[in-house]
Amino acid sequence: MLSSRRDLSNGQAFSSSARVATQQPTIHNVFEPVTGTWQFVVSDPSTKSAVIIDPVLDYDPATQAITTDSADKLLALVKDKGYTVERILETHAHADHLTSASYLQKKLSEIQDFKPPIGIGKRIEKVQKLFGKRYGVSKEEYDTVFDNLFEDDESFTIGNVTAKAIHLPGHTPDHLGYRIGDNIFCGDSLFHADIGTARCDFPGGNAKDLFQSSRKILSLGDHVKIWPGHDYPPAGRDPIPWLSVADHREQNKHVRDTISEEEFVALRTERDANLNAPRLLHQSLQINIRAGRLPAPLESGHRLLHLPLKLNGLDW
Fold first, then answer.
1. Per the domain annotation, does 89 fall within a domain?
2. Does the pLDDT at position 106 exceed 70?
3. With contact defined as beta carbons under 8 Å apart, do 86 and 78 qualify?
4. Does 9 score more than 70 pLDDT?
């Protein structure tokens, strides 16, 4: 049995553990089912200040069409609740979905007469350089697209709610989690307990680092809620937006308390060796190192992405 009760309709959650008497945020979890992504709007109930975490830009690889339905739902939620969005936060440069951070920044600056900065961890520059070179994206296209490059353990506020950017490497070297009140938004570090953890086979990924990051998360108080960046529910289970630290320590199939670092590295390495590349890998990385900005149009008006060919030994 899980030690927590949750209302999936509005993201409100209750823990049987004692709570720290600090200002707690209101959390809206919005699931994007095509890529299995959790998007979050997190606000201070006393000031209506808010942040948006890991928003999705819709993309259809069959037609190459980009649409903004998911992002527009976040804008509608923000408008309905009367929030002022102070920041847009990315946990890392995602490889499985496109970010709508720049689109939201533009739209929000028109709505609230304030341009919310886009934040990410300071190590993004190494990721941008690597994938910029791989995909032919010039430095001018990604050099200043992120407004805030968070230092490790850098603190900030959302209205009267305290928050902290926490370095959680393993899935990617630049990966951050955001501790907001008694919650941590852990991106692609931990998933639901029946899935375990994220892959570590991307450039700069490391299973030992991910194990240490998971222990960092699970060293928080048992009552702290862990909100993952994705869920891929098997048949018969709805997407679940959070579990407590206590839940993961008892039940997470990869990092519960009875699993050692050596066991984790072995199982993660074996599993990663048999995983296919993410379906939107190439499109996502080219857009996401630009913080969601689109490639500049050619003289023809087309905006192009680069997709590598698999030649299977052929060459001419």
1. yes
2. yes
3. no
4. no
Q: What is the pTM of this model?
A: 0.91
**Number of structural domains the chain divides into:** 1
Sheet holding 98-99, edge to edge: 65-67, 56-60, 98-99
Identify whether 274 is part of a domain: yes
222 is a domain residue: yes
DSSP the chain: --SEEE-TTT--EEESS---SS---EEEEEEETTTTEEEEEEE-TTT-EEEEES-EEEEETTTTEEE-HHHHHHHHHHHHHT-EEEEEE-SS--SSSEE-HHHHHHHHHHHHSS-PPEEEETTHHHHHHHHHHHHT--HHHHTT--SEEEPTTEEEEETTEEEEEEE--SSSTT-EEEEETTEEEEETSB--TTT-B----STT--HHHHHHHHHHHHTS-TT-EEEESB--PPTT------EEHHHHHHH-TTTSTT--HHHHHHHHHHHHTTPPPPTTHHHHHHHHTTTTPPPPP-TTS----------TT---
Segment among 21-30, 59-68, 217-226 with least mean pLDDT: 21-30
Q: Cα angle vertex 27, ends 23, 30, to 5°?
A: 170
21 pLDDT band, cuts 50/70/90, is low
Phi-psi region of 292 (alpha: psi -120 to 50; beta: other; left: phi over 0): left
24-51, pLDDT tens digit by residue? 999 999 999 999 999 999 999 999 999 9
* 76 inside domain: yes
**Structural domain that includes position 112:** 22-283
**CATH number for the domain that contains residue 115:** 3.60.15.10
